[in-house]
Amino acid sequence: MNPMQAIAAALSPQGIVWTLLLLSVITALHELGHYWAARKQSVKVDSFSVGMGPVLLRRQWRGTEWRLSLLPIGGYVQIDGMAPEEAPDGTLRHPSTGFAALPPLGRIGVLLAGPLVNLLLAIGLMTATFSALGVTANDRVRVGEVIAGSPAERLGLRAGDDIVALDGQDIPEQAEIAGKAGPGYLLLGELLKEAGPHTLTVQRTGEAEQRQLAFDWTPTVNGERQLLGIRYGPGSQPVSVPQALGRSLQTTAEAVPLVVNSFAGLLGEMFSLDLKGEETDDVGGPIRITETVSRAAALNGWALVQIATLLNLSLAVFNLLPIPGLDGGRIALVLIEMLRGRPLTFQQEQSVTAAGFLFVMLLMAFVLVRDVTRFF
Q1: What are the φ and ψ backbone dihedral angles of 73, each rounded to 5 degrees?
Q2: H/E run at residue 86
Q3: Strand segments (E) across 104-210
Q4: Distance, CA of 69 to CA of 56 (rounded, Å)
Q5: Which residues constitute the domain of residue 117?
Q6: Of 157, 148, 231, 237, which Cα lies nearest the Cα of 189?
Q7: 189 and 257 in one domain?
Q8: What Rg do the C-alpha atoms of the chain give, in angstroms?
Q9: 143 and 125: one domain?
Q10: Same-domain status, 328 and 197
Q11: 153 has catalytic annotation
Q12: Exactly one of 31, 269, 291, 349 is catalytic; which is it?
């Protein structure tokens, strides 16, 4: 398969449709956050568009023109007082009404509302996922698949089983594996390196009692390593909705620094023109995102919910980066104004915003090129 065929395979029609749908909904909700915060402070909102480009449908409602535009690649909200206004002499200047007339904290509230909506959505979707599927539990082994004809099948293991103890010993959350700290479920692999009789304590879905599966194990057969014949990972622990919310908040607090570090690493790779991106392989462009969404759609609806969670969290963090042109950059300008006691001049602010916009475009181009080079 040549590179172009590989790219075409990654960009499946199903993946493209789901990606556009997810990004459109996520972006629309982000812009609704800005809209709500502006309207709560009696600031007029001129228009709200789902999609970009030529307008297909438009309707006036509550003083705002609501639009459906041709290209399903995002959306925008036009809030009075955010764009430059024309002076009597025809030159552009700082606006003086609407958003611009709000006190600094009011403007920060409008700018912060969009990313905050995405953050709350990520927490909400995460809570729903944990409530439905449970939370990851490293102190148990979840059997994902049993290979036909394998020792595991003869032993009686089934997909969905949770192994909760090895040789009568509970599996810890963390364990030392090959001299390094790791999740406890990996101890199953260490156990299978040892010959002799072993016992797995199994908790089967829908059954209250645990069962003991005893077997005599030989790690190698005819000089080759023998495999038990299962695909496995960490287990899952059922939780209540309040517990799921607590775990979501904890997970978000742990994930935000990781996302920030990933973006910081991406910026470093852009400046060094590192197209391999080995340290930030989890940060993808449109091709990688579409490929990931396509795989999730082929699995089940919950996989798509998890992708939507990650996209919301990433969009929230990215928009809060202090880069001019992003929400975080505009918040930084308001904070500078508060510290100086006066705003930047119109020319200074326009220069900073233009530089930030150019920087974001270069970053997007770099990510796209890095996406494509993976196939060559």
Answers
A1: -125, 40
A2: strand 85-86
A3: 135-146, 162-166, 169-170, 174-177, 180-183, 196-203
A4: 5
A5: 3-44+80-133+242-373
A6: 231
A7: no
A8: 26
A9: no
A10: no
A11: no
A12: 31
Q: Is residue 165 part of a domain?
A: yes
Residue 98 lies in a domain: yes
Domain end, chosen from 237, 252, 283, is at 237
Q: Are residues 257 and 108 in the same domain?
A: yes
User: Rounded CA gap, 18 and 71, in Å?
Assistant: 14
Residue type, 180: K
The tens-digit pLDDT sequence of the chain (376 residues) is 566 666 676 677 888 889 999 999 999 999 999 999 999 999 999 999 999 999 999 999 999 999 999 988 889 999 999 988 887 877 888 888 999 999 999 999 999 999 999 999 999 999 999 999 888 889 999 998 999 999 999 999 999 899 999 999 999 999 998 888 899 999 999 999 999 999 999 998 778 889 999 999 999 888 888 999 999 999 888 899 999 999 999 999 999 998 888 888 888 888 888 777 655 566 677 888 888 888 888 777 888 999 999 999 999 999 999 998 899 999 999 999 999 988 888 889 889 989 999 999 998 888 888 888 877 6
Question: Distance (Å, rounded) from C-alpha 122 to C-alpha 173?
Answer: 26
pTM here? 0.82
For 254, counting Cβ atoms within 10 Å of its Cβ (0-12 exposed, 13-18 middle, 19+ buried), the class is exposed
Last residue of a domain, one of 216, 237, 258: 237
In a domain, 273, yes or no: yes
Mark whether 223 and 163 lie in a shared domain: yes
Structural domain count, the chain: 2
CATH of the domain at 176: 2.30.42.10
User: Do residues 287 and 9 make contact, with C-beta atoms less than 8 angstroms apart?
Assistant: no
